[in-house]
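To the team - adenosine-5'-diphosphate complex, inputs and output below.
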Amino acid sequence: MNKNSIKVEKLSKNFVNNKVVVKVLNNLNLNLETGKIIALVGPSGSGKSTLLHLLALLDKPTEGKITILGEPTQNITENKRNQLIRNHISIIFQNNNLLLDFTAVENVAMPLIIRNKNYNSSIKEAESYLKKVNLGHRLNHFPSDLSGGEQQRVAIARSLISDTKIILADEPTGNLDNKNSSEVLSYFLKLKQKNKIVLIATHNREIAKKADYTLSIRDGIIKTSNGK
Ligand code: ADP
Ligand code: MG
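Output:
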């Protein structure tokens, strides 16, 4: 039992669409270790988001096992699952998933507030994370008043503040210009020293190049390469 990895065994995921079975992931085996930045690449529709959602325990595999930090997840209770997610997993969704009725700083503070941290100190900390992603001037804006790239940076700040061991990022630089994507990448690279598991689904070559290795997904199968 390894408390410092995500272990995936014989993982398959099918979706049923209009009675047609779509096989998205086919018998994957993976071992993702701490202290690594891993790029997940593959054509659109190849199953990158599907895999991230499974690893974030937001969806269930059709077959196979996912063990998170030594904890088997296939038969866990809802309570235990929520606890694992809250304590250990951050996901940056492809579409941001910001809470529309809350400001940027409140969105970023949310992971601390739901862990019962003091409201004012959570807001203070959220401010400092927003400054790190160059959004110190947008603290009190609502998501609808931010550009796509700004919303994405709020989502990134929100995923970093909770300081979880596992960070799953779904095309986090998709809406960012070169300057902001390089800066965001540098935060991800810093996380490496904090001994986290960072898995980034991306089309960005710079990320794929700087990652420790790349997982390429195609036709349901994953191949590993160090891509350098
Ligand atoms: P990627 O993130 O690599 O672009 P996805 O994981 O989003 O790919 O999707 C992989 C495939 O699974 C696509 O063909 C998509 O249409 C299908 N798919 C994803 N989610 C669902 C779902 N909830 N129901 C049916 N099909 C789905
Ligand atoms: Mg996707």
